[in-house]
Design brief:
The strands form two sheets. The protein has an eight-stranded mixed beta sheet, sandwiched between helices. The protein has a six-stranded mixed beta sheet with strand order 13-12-9-10-11-14. It contains 13 helices and 14 strands. The model has no long low-confidence stretch (mean pLDDT 89). By secondary structure, it is an alpha/beta fold. Helix 1 runs parallel beside helix 2 and helix 2 packs across helix 3.
C-alpha cells in the first residue's frame, strides 16, 4: 500500500499483521484511529468488490473521529472515492478495482445482522461494555478472500478486550501495543497534560497503553487514610465556604471544604460533613440543609454550592427546583449543564487525593472512600448499599467542577 504517512512502528505492525483478529492498543495520541483506518484500506486491496465495516462505540464518534480520519487517509493517499451520506457508505476506487466501506456505531450492533462483510473493525472498542458488537461483527465475515476483523482502543481495564487480547490470546488473535510517547509528532504539552490530569494507575493505561485494574475492587483506590486524613484539615474563616451536595432525599448529604487552587501541596481541605434524615411530610430537604449549614456557620456569608447538576430540574417543592432554593437563599451556585460521566467524575476524584486532606470527623465521606466499590466487571459504581455513595457523589460534583479531568484531543498528530 502506498502511503504518504510517517507510519509509527506499532501502526506498521498492526497494518501488516496477518492474524485473523488483531488489536492495536495504545495510550492517548498513539495513532490508533489512523492505524485503524489504514488497516481497513490494506484489507480493501485483498477484498476487491467487498464490503468493509468500520465502527465507533457511538454515532458522535463516527462523525467527529472516524469519518474525518478516514477521509484524511483517502485524500492523502489520493484514492478516488464517492460518498453516499444516507448510508454513510464510501466506494473507494483504485486502478485494480473498488471496495465498499460503511461507517457504523457499535451501540446499534443488532442492525448489522444481514450484512455480508469481507472485513471490519471497531475503534475505541474498550469503551463498549461487552463483546456483543464484536461477536456480531465476526459472525458477518462471509464474503471476501481475506476475512479479518480488528479493534483499536485505549485500554479501559480488565474488560472484554482484555479477555480476548490480554489473557485469552490464541493463534487467531494478535495484540500490538504502543505508548503515547512513541508518537514523536505529538506536541510536548499533549503528554504533559496527560501526566497532569491522571493519577499513576490511569497513566499506565492512558499514557503507556497497559492493561490495569480499573473495574474491580475499590472505586476510590487513590484514597489513603494515612496520607489524606489529618486533624490539620480545619476551616479557614477567611476562605469561601464551599459545599458539595448530593440531592438524595434520605439521607441528604453534603460536605464542606476550602479550596486553595494555587497551593503546591494541599489544594482541597475537607473539614465538615452534614447528613440529614427526612422527617416525613412535605419537608424541603434542600432548605433544611441550608438552615443547618447556617446554624453551624452563622457568621459566614460567602458560600458556594456545588450541587448535582440534575437539581436544576428536580423539585423538592411544588414551586421551585433545588437549584432555585439555593439561589433564593442568596447562595452562589456552580454546576455544569449536565452531570459528568461516572468514569470522568471518579477519575477526577482519584486524582484529587494527590493534594487533598480531610478531617477525621468526616466519617461518612471517609467510609465512602474506603468502602464504595465498582460493579463486578464494570466501571459503574455499586449502589446496592443504600448507606454508601451519597457523600462521595457529592464530593465528586465539586471536584469535577473545579478540578475536572481535561482530556486532551485524541486527534492524531502525524508528520
Amino acid at each position: 500500500m502506498r502511503t504518504n504517512f510517517n507510519v509509527l512502528k506499532h501502526q506498521k505492525l498492526f497494518i501488516q499483521n496477518e492474524a485473523k483478529y488483531s488489536s492495536l492498543i495504545t495510550g492517548y495520541g498513539g495513532g490508533k484511529t489512523l492505524g485503524f483506518c489504514l488497516k481497513g484500506l490494506a484489507q480493501a486491496g485483498k477484498n476487491v468488490g467487498g464490503t468493509i465495516l468500520l465502527a465507533e462505540p457511538v454515532f458522535p464518534m463516527v462523525r467527529d473521529v472516524l469519518q474525518p480520519t478516514f477521509e484524511k487517509c483517502l485524500n492523502d493517499l489520493k484514492f478516488d472515492y464517492t460518498y453516499k451520506a444516507s448510508d454513510m457508505r464510501y466506494v473507494v476506487k483504485w486502478r485494480g478495482g473498488y471496495c465498499n466501506f460503511i461507517l457504523r456505531s457499535a451501540e446499534n450492533w443488532r442492525r448489522w445482522a444481514g450484512l455480508n462483510l469481507a472485513s471490519g473493525g471497531i475503534d475505541e472498542a474498550g469503551l463498549l461494555k461487552d463483546d456483543s458488537a464484536w461477536r456480531m461483527l465476526i459472525s458477518r465475515l462471509r464474503e471476501g478472500k481475506d476475512l479479518k476483523a480488528w479493534t483499536s482502543t485505549t485500554p479501559e481495564g480488565f474488560n472484554w478486550v482484555y479477555e480476548y487480547w490480554g489473557e485469552g490470546l490464541t493463534d487467531e488473535y494478535a495484540l500490538i501495543q504502543g505508548r503515547t510517547e512513541d508518537n514523536p509528532f505529538l506536541p510536548e504539552e499533549f503528554v504533559e497534560s496527560l501526566k497532569a490530569n491522571y493519577d499513576k494507575r490511569l497513566i499506565e493505561a492512558y499514557l503507556h497503553g497497559k492493561f490495569v485494574n480499573l473495574q474491580h475492587g475499590s472505586t476510590y483506590y487513590g484514597f489513603s487514610r494515612e496520607k489524606n486524613v489529618t486533624d490539620r484539615a480545619v476551616h479557614n474563616q477567611s476562605q469561601p465556604l464551599l459545599v458539595s451536595l448530593d440531592f438524595n432525599i434520605d439521607p441528604f448529604c453534603g460536605i464542606v471544604w476550602n479550596y486553595y487552587p494555587n497551593s503546591q501541596k494541599e489544594k482541597i481541605v475537607v473539614f465538615d460533613e452534614i447528613q440529614l434524615r427526612h422527617g416525613g411530610g412535605n419537608e424541603l430537604m434542600t432548605q433544611a440543609f441550608i438552615n443547618e449549614l447556617k446554624r453551624r456557620y452563622p457568621n459566614h456569608n460567602n458560600m458556594v454550592f456545588y450541587p448535582d447538576p440534575s437539581g436544576k430540574q428536580r423539585r423538592t417543592s411544588a414551586i421551585n427546583t433545588d437549584h432555585d432554593i439555593i439561589r433564593l437563599n442568596g447562595i452562589k451556585l456552580k454546576a455544569k449543564r449536565s452531570a459528568p460521566s461516572v468514569v470522568d467524575r471518579v477519575n477526577a476524584v482519584n486524582k484529587s487525593f494527590e493534594h487533598m486532606i480531610i478531617n477525621p470527623k468526616c466519617k461518612g465521606l471517609i467510609r465512602d472512600f474506603e468502602q464504595v466499590v465498582n460493579k463486578e466487571g464494570t466501571r459503574d459504581i455499586d449502589k446496592s448499599n443504600m448507606n454508601l455513595t451519597h457523600f462521595s457523589d457529592g464530593y465528586g460534583y465539586g471536584i469535577d467542577y473545579e478540578l475536572p479531568i481535561r482530556k486532551p484531543t485524541t486527534k492524531t498528530f502525524m508528520g
